[in-house]
Amino acid sequence: MRSPRIFHVDAFAEAPFSGNPAAVCLLENEAEPAWMQRVAREMNLSETAFVVRNSKGFGLRWFTPSVEVPLCGHATLASAHVLWEAGVLATDCAARFFTSSGELVAQRRGDWIELDFPSKPVKEVTPRPELLEALGVAAVFVGSDGSNDLVQVASEAEVRDANPDFLRLKEASPFGTILTATSSLPDYDFVSRYFAPSIGINEDPVTGSSHCALGPFWESRLKRHSFFARQISSRGGMMRVEVRGERVLLGGKAITISRGELLCCV
Predict the structure, then answer these.
(1) Which end of the chain is more exposed for a tag (fewer CB within 10 A), N or C?
(2) Catalytic site positions
(3) Same fold? 5-118+251-261, 123-245
């Protein structure tokens, strides 16, 4: 049996060594979850994606170094990029992924890749003091998309300067926390950061799935459907965001950093 091929890809990246790195493992057959978790721990990136062809398209699962997650934008973008670049899928064909979050579609749009993801509307909730104390911010708005907390603050500077207490945040937010504000620069409509210490990621460099909530959240406030967004982590990354009813289109670029094979097979 052929050894699984594995790729290191920077997603939502404008240049190498920016954006959010993901590992993408191409499988010939389904693999045991315990094996995939060990591979993800070995890769030690925020997410490792496992892709296997099926009768409808491709099965796709995502693992952090510690747990499997239900949805990951940047590793989906990286997976589509790898399928086209490796010649597994013709570049004029859409990549169709079947996941625990339903069917996800990626298409080439020139130099960009566009993901079609489910919208995750945000509902306002009563602010929890322990959450805001862990973040160290004063909130304009606090809400939830059903899994992530979303905290809006008054300025981009407050997002950029936030220095969370990750031990306290791990207890205060059971999945992840989105911190956001309008952008101070004309090139972008809003900025964000994403923290998820409870699943082993103190800060994610660029998070596609969080923009499934950020898109409809800012649509209701800015009265627009399309945005340019920037995640202002230390690596940083940008994406296009377009809200279409119950779906959100996320656009970004991807760059392959390395490729190889796993010698410890499934």
Answers:
(1) N
(2) 47
(3) yes
